[in-house]
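Action item from last meeting closed. Structure (123 res):
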């Protein structure tokens, strides 16, 4: 019975690593998840970076699809982190984030761009 109730609850936090410390980070504070050299990182609204111990594919299954979108193989974005987007080369889109010190160039593929546009309007 307890397991059933837990499965109905939406996750509101994830466990992340900052050095040797484990933190419970609120999903509402997450800007994006990204992978670099096979390590998954989490970036929060305060521009802090944490290590996450699951793959982006595993993470994608656990996140609310109304709040998070997998834009490509490297990034999963929170809807509130997206400031704008513009056309890029050959039907792709380039996303601009609400983060001040943004060093990420995020491109949505030509194949995913129509799905992204539909998601951002209905999420």
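Sequence:
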């Amino acid at each position: 019975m307890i397991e059933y109730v837990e499965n109905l609850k939406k996750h509101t936090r994830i466990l992340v690593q900052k050095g040797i410390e484990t933190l419970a980070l609120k999903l509402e504070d997450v800007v994006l998840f990204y992978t670099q050299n096979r390590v998954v990182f989490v970036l929060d609204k305060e521009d802090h970076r944490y290590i996450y111990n699951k793959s982006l594919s595993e993470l994608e299954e656990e996140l609310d699809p109304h709040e998070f979108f997998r834009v490509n193989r490297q990034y999963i974005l929170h809807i509130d982190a997206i400031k704008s987007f513009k056309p890029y080369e050959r039907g792709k889109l380039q996303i601009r984030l609400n983060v001040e010190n943004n060093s990420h160039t995020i491109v949505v593929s030509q194949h995913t761009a129509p799905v992204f546009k539909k998601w951002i309007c209905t999420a």
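Note appended to the action item: The helical segments are 2-8, 56-62, 113-122.
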